[in-house]
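Technical appendix A lists one of the benchmark inputs used to test multi-chain prediction within the project. The record comprises two sequence entries:
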Amino acid sequence: MNVIAGARELVTRHMRESGIFVAFVAIVALFAALNPFFLSPNNLTNIVLQYSYILILAIGMVMIIVAGQIDLSVGSVVALTGAVSAVVVIREGMPWYVGALAALVVGLLVGAWQGFWVAFVGIPGFIVTLAGMLLFRGLTYRVLDNVSLSPFGGTYYDIANGFQNGLLGGMGFDVFTLVIFAIAVVGYAVSQWRTRRGRVAYQQTVEGLPLFALKILIVAAVVMWFGYQLAQSRGLPNVLILLAVLVIVYGLVTQKSVFGRHVYAVGGNKHAAELSGVKVRRVNFWIFVNMGFLASVAGIVFSSRMNGAQPGAGNMFELDAIAACFIGGASTTGGVGRVGGAMIGGLIMAVMSNGMQLMGVPQSIQQVIKGLVLLLAVAFDIYNKRRAAALR
Amino acid sequence: MSTILEMRSITKEFPGVKALSDVTLTVEQGEIHAICGENGAGKSTLMKVLSGVYPHGTYGGEIVFDGKTAEFGSINDSEAEGIVIIHQELALVPYLSVAENIFLGNELRGRGGLIDWNRANAEAAKLLARVGLDEQPVSTVGTLGVGKQQLIEIAKALSKEVRLLILDEPTAALNDNDSEHLLELLRQLKAHGITCIIISHKLNEIAEIADRTTIIRDGRTIETIDMSDPSSTQDRIIRGMVGRDLEHRYPERTSVVGNEVLRVENWTVFHPTQPGRKVIDDASFNVRAGEVVGIAGLMGAGRTELARSVFGRSYGRNISGRLYKDGREIKVPSVADAIQHGIAYATEDRKAYGLNLIDDVCRNISLAGLENIAPRGWVNSNEELRVAEEYRASLNIKTPTVLATVGKLSGGNQQKVVLSKWLYTDPDVLILDEPTRGIDVGAKYEIYTIVNKMVAAGKAVVVISSELPELLGICDRVYTLAFGRITGELPVAEATQERLMELMTIERDQPLPTKDYVS
């Protein structure tokens, strides 16, 4: 009976995330059936390019939400950091990397500023970042003198618009892209195998070998198919490489590092965390610094993609990032949420926007549907929580 | 006497668990009926079945209330019949007034559907008089103590014309005076014909007030005994609850006391938000290896404040005084430093301060000692699971897996998780703040056994408690704390409950007795 209870516990624990994954697959299947162009190489590349900055923001946002805070300022910070970069590169004529570096420094400073008010003064993140939203938007207008700056051109433009293509030659498709994807798949399989071996060594229960192999095989097939589609189009987008690195690094930080554990502990019960030696203020400070950093990365990607900076850039990005986290299973009261979940949540929004655009659904209806999806996702979350509670 | 309530063959199953099987409960009109059982025995489930939290159809068996078969679909249905349940965690809104709370959800409407506040306040005043609470109906509930809030809950129940009042652990958070007052009130209600079911772990309280007691164990009725019968002793109840003879409520221990481990000198702490208010006044105490030292104090004496201010200054302001560890002075400005110096503190309020209830057993155990399994900042989760399994086995934590959510465990098992967390930091001094609050007799015994194991391993243990028999049962020495001052120190051989109580009630401006104060 213990095993069954344990298995059920495991399923209810992961129900929210796997449930959302099933929903994602269903949405993709739906649009693929409705529009044959949806799964075409070109369109898949477009989805990655169009929503990468929301996904980057969602990585930082999910950590903030897990810690029980919220950040409303990220849209303005995206605009500000992009503007600073544009001023440095376009107006001052400095090299692209100076612009990117300036943007990162501004992002870190913004994060430290907001972290200071939240962690050391004790003002709720909602208020601090609401103020930040106005503050940094205003600064963006000042920095840009109310006008747009463009174009970046050159290497800076390639950050978000460039591809790794033809490095190893190709026969109608890019070999380099396929090699990178193959390395990724092998790396995934090896790390899964090592985790499994570690579990076995510690006498933990693992799924049977055939099931394990099947899981790896399915993941490998889907990933390689996706890679092949990209290889047939324009090759490997630079942004995708950046995103993959960020997801892996932050996935490890949140799940495997002491700092990540402390974020969950603070969100789950701040007092208990404090009395267990967790430095709650320090955790709060660093998650906002980190958010500032990722917002500046998103700012660089977005300004590069737009090939310029506009004073109104990044408007409402914060809401897309927050929605991605909640659709991806983060809890509104903190303590629960994963980077992987937020990525799926962000992809659901991306796929829906893209699919509806392809089908020519009017903008107004798109908004309505996205709003309903957010509502339903959180309702599903609450329903699951109740069911889990009723099991007791 | 007629029967007001009969619950026949109640069976309630959750997936995989049979919480109640064939439970029978008969309550007579106008009696006070106690229900006893270990945590997790099914008492709360039974009361949830009765009050309609688990609606009719989700359980087996039959409920007959007042001669009629009752099929409650919700709490509202049972309240309409006059069954009111008061939970252990009070459900009052702290920012609303007493009257607003009493009539919450049941507002007295005047003309045009608006609330008639004059009538509400007048009615509330009458109800307050009935429960013997001398407070204004317009006072804010949050400013009143727990004891008074409990009385407001009862006043609220009376406003609904209650016929059967169910109290779940009503005195768990109350001090002796407030408990006494509450029990007296229950007797008065009984005289007015209100039937009462009381769930309690305090056996002497049950002996004092209950007419009959039903004992539940592992989801089954063991027996219902008449308390006027001379054979209905506390020992008989305990035997029924745990299913075995508990000859000694405290495990035997021969103490081997070694060198001093921790000494606190001239410790003074001020209130964090009210400057100038001394919470701890010039307190000094010490604890030696292999020794269990008790700190006895009434609620509000500053017990938790003393412990938490020592534990990395996690409470208070302008803290002055010295700490010595193994004879050397140490500075402990933060909790992390305290853990580093081998000091651990297990809180009195495990839900609010001890556990991350939405996380699993495993991660709760590892949190304070995470550095041990995280070389270079990366957690070895396999090692983490192994550690958790080890504590689950050695402390006998009853959970389906170490990946189960802590919030779903019973109080005693949650307490064992808290202890595991601190044992894993490998402390030299362990401060236990009310380690057995709200947990049952069997689990208490297990906790005492764990304490004994620790001192046998040469650790020093400080136990803070308001249960004097507990302190006398497990300690080598007892300090008394009253109004922020250490008022006495007694070897356990010289301590009696009366002597301790005397020392615990010395007021702020009274002189301290000198003869007991040996250092």
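Chain B has a mean pLDDT of 87. The CA atoms of residues 362 and 388 of chain B lie 5 Å apart. Comparable benchmark entries are summarised in Table A2.
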